[in-house]
Amino acid sequence: MRIYITADMEGVTGLVDAQDVQPGGRDYERGRQAMAEDVNAAVRGALTAGATDITVNDAHGPMRNLLPDAVHPAARLIRGKPKQMGMLEGLAPEHDAAICVGYHSRAGALGVLSHSFMGHEIEDIWLDGRPVGEIGLAHATAAALGVPVAVLTGDDGACEEMTEWDASVTTVAVKYARDRFAAQLRPADEARRAIEDAVASSLSAPLTPPEVAPDPSTLTVRWQSASVAAILLGIPGVTSTDSRTVQARGALPGLYRHFGVWMRVASSLTDQPPYC
């Protein structure tokens, strides 16, 4: 059994603030250790279920958060950037299931460290008219590859968002949002036991085949800056619906990769810190 783990950081056990998840932050080093511990809990669960091949993709920010010697030796780690598929680098049709560790809710939601990909630079995203963030796009892209998402871990807001997208996915809430930068935390040992048990149980049971998005799909993004939208119109296939909103049509997973190019353009045009 081949398992793929995409690991974000905002939804990791105990983390609530930018200082926990951004390099140079006061508590970042502790945060990256906590990230590894959540990932390792998922790896242990996968091994219990019989996984023989486990890939972990560091999917947060600089994508160099997980220290190689802190990751379970049974997993192969993908780290660094740029990556053509970003948060889903290395995901392939040969994988039997995907696991999302440390995920967070989309921009506008009152979840811990909620945003969509780029702090507050992205205000809204829609996939075929349906509001979506990192959770929904990851799920839809995995589905296009024929890979079901088995488990998602994060705060309760992220879990609710996943359940709204696909109720068959097992979710593990490791904290409960009190506000965007505050949460009631589950004890760390309890949270990681819950991750391990959920992964082992989910991968030991038959997985529901994922519902595949239409081909082609339409991805629409509203940016904070009209400048970003205007520049993106120079990319073939990108159209606008208003001064800050652009869209493109295409098949996933290619459309996900296309969106990654948009973010690289936006990053070159803006210099605003996330989570403000």
From TrEMBL:
Coiled coil: none annotated. Zn(2+) 1 binds at D8, E10. Keywords: Metal-binding, Zinc. One of its GO terms (molecular function) is metal ion binding. Zn(2+) 2 binds at D8, H60, H104, E134. The active site is at H115. InterPro entries: DppA_N, Peptidase_M55, Peptidase_M55_sf. The keyword DNA damage does not apply. This is Peptidase M55. It comes from Streptomyces cyaneochromogenes.
